[in-house]
Amino acid sequence: xxxxxxxxxxxxxxxxxxxxxxxxxxxxxxxxxxxxxxxxxxxxxxxxxxxxxxxxxxxxxxxxxxxxxxxxxxxxxxxxxxxxxxxxxxxxxxxxxxxxxxxxxxxxxxxxxxxxxxxxxxxxxxxxxxxxxxxxxxxxxxxxxxxxxxxxxxxxxxxxxxxxxxxxxxxxxxxxxxxxxxxxxxxxxxxxxxxxxxxxxxxxxxxxxxxxxxxxxxxxxxxxxxxxxxxxxxxxxxxxxxxxxxxxxxxxxxxxxxxxxxxxxxxxxxxxxxxxxxxxxxxxxxxxxxxxxxxxxxxxxxxxxxxxxxxxxxxxxxxxxxxxxxxxxxxxxxxxxxxxxxxxxxxxxxxxxxxxxxxxxxxxxxxxxxxxxxxxxxxxxxxxxxxxxxxxxxxxxxxxxxxxxxxxxxxxxxxxxxxxxxxxxxxxxxxxxxxxxxxxxxxxxxxxxxxxxxxxxxxxxxxxxxxxxxxxxxxxxxxxxxxxxxxxxxxxxxxxxxxxxxxxxxxxxxxxxxxxxxxxxxxxxxxxxxxxxxxxxxxxxxxxxxxxxxxxxxxxxxxxxxxxxxxxxxxxxxxxxxxxxxxxxxxxxxxxxxxxxxxxxxxxxxxxxxxxxxxxxxxxx
Length: 621
Hints:
Layout: H1 5-8, E1 22-25, E2 29-35, E3 46-51, E4 58-61, E5 65-67, H2 80-90, H3 102-106, H4 109-119, H5 134-151, H6 155-168, H7 177-191, H8 201-206, E6 213-216, E7 220-221, E8 225-230, H9 236-249, E9 265-269, H10 274-283, E10 292-295, H11 302-314, E11 319-323, H12 325-328, H13 340-354, E12 358-364, H14 382-385, E13 389-395, E14 410-416, E15 422-428, E16 434-439, H15 440-456, H16 461-473, E17 477-478, H17 479-486, H18 497-511, E18 515-520, E19 523-528, E20 537-538, E21 552-553, E22 570-571, H19 577-580
Parallel strand pairs: 6-21, 8-12, 8-13, 9-10, 9-11, 11-12
Antiparallel strand pairs: 1-2, 1-5, 2-3, 3-4, 6-7, 13-14, 14-15, 15-16, 17-19, 18-19, 20-22
Helix pairs in contact: 2-4, 5-6, 5-7, 7-13, 16-17, 16-18, 17-18
C-alpha cells in the first residue's frame, strides 16, 4: 500500500538504514539502499539508493526517506525470479555486485537468462589469478620453447603454438617471429647437447673417447649433415652422384677412401627431370643397382618426412641425398633467406641422424665469383651453421680471373668441423667419375707458368739470341758483354742502333721474368732467371688401424691412399739452380695448365716429419 503524500513528507530524523532496506521517496518512488557513505558524519544523514526504473544509485538524505517494503514478485519456475537471479550470480553469468531488479523480474528476464545459460555447454569457472610478471612470463615462455623444440617436429605448427603462448603470457608485443625462431635454434642446440657442459679430467676418463666416424674419410662424416654447394649448372648433382657411385661400389672418391661397410643410398632428385636422372645413373651403371632407392619428389612436410624416416629405418645407415634445398622447401612459408630455415634444417638433420642415416644436401651458391666455402652459400647463415661440412664446386678461373665455363675442370673446396680443409681441382673421368688434378694453388702456379711460356713463345729473334746468351753464360753480364756474345758491334759507346736494341731485349726478358737484373755501380748487369720448374704433385697417407684413437671410417678400418692432408700436398722435387735455365720452356706449350692424371704410388712427405701425429704411422719410403 502506497503511503499518502502527507506521510511521505514527514522526515525520519535519526533513522538509520542499511544496505538491502527498501525505502520510499516522495517524488522518486520506491528504491533499495545499496551503500552507506564511509566519510565521517555520514551515518544516519545520507545513504545511496537505487530507485526502480533507474540503473544508477544516487546519494539521498535520510530525512527524505521513509521505510518501505520490498516489491512483490509473482512466483515463477524454479523458485521465482529472485531464485533465478541468485542462480545467475552463482553461475557467474551476472557480476557479483549486480543487484536484483524488480522491473526485470516482472518481465521474467532472469528466468529466461537461466534457461539460455543452461542450454550452453558447461564450462569451468576461470580462476581469478593475478597475471605473471614479465620475468616469470619470460621464464615460462623459455620452458615452452624448449618443450616444443623437443616434441614438435613441424616448424609451422611449432611457430603457431609459440605465438599463441606468447600472446597468452602477454609477450606478443615484445617477441616477434624472428626472435622465436632464434630461441628455437638455441633450444635445439641445448637439446642436442651442444650447450656448455664442463667436464673434468675424471669425467673424461670415465667415458669412452669420442671419435669421428666417416662415410667418405676426410670429406663426408657419417651420421651428420654435409652440404654440396655451387652455382647453377656447375655440376653439383654429377659430383653428388659420383659420390653415391663410390659409396655403393666401395671405391675411393678423389683418393678419399670410402668406409668398408658400404650403406644403401636414398637419392631424391627433385631439382631435375626424371629423364636426366635416368641418363646420369645409366651412364654410371647405377640404374639397376639393388641398394639404390630413388625418388623424383620430396617436400619438407610431415607426411613426406615420415615416409623418408621409414625408408631409412628399412635401410639402416642409409646415405640420404636431397637435391636441392630450394626444391624440397617449396611447401614452406619461409624461404632460404629467413632465419626459420635454420630451425628447419636442424629438424631435418636431427630426424635423419636419429633414424641412423647420413644426410647429403645439395644447395645453390650466390653470384659472387670470388667466394668459396661457407661464404659462397646462398641464403641465411643458419644453413651452413647446421652442417658439419660444406663442399662448394666452382668453375676454374681463366687468365683474367673470370669463371672459365669452357674448361671442364672444376675447383672443389671443402671446409668443415671434422677433418681438414682442402682446395683442389678435379676433372671428369670415365663412367661419370672424377679424378684429382692437383691442388688449386699448384693449378694457379701452372696457369701463371703457362701464361709466361705463351709470352716467351712470342719473343723476337734478337730476344731469343739474348736469352740463349744469358742461359749459356749463367753469370752476371753487362749489356756490352751480351753484345759481344751474340756478335753485335759495340758502336758509339753503346748508343748505336744495335746495342740499344739489345738493351730493349734485356728489359723485355726481365719483364717476363726470364732474366734477372741488378745494378753494379753505374751499369746494370743481367743473368738468366733461376726459377724452379713446377712438377706434378703426388701424395700418400696411411689410414690408422681400427683400434687406434682418432678419426676412423664408418665401420672397419680402411687401408688406402687418403686425402687426409690436402694441405700437405707437396712438390715431388725441386730443380737445382744449375738445371733451371735448361728447363725454361723453349718448345710449344699450351696455355691451359696440365698435370699427369695418374699420381705416383707414394709421396715425398718432405713437409711432414715422422711422429708428428701419434695416431698415424710413418710414411712409406
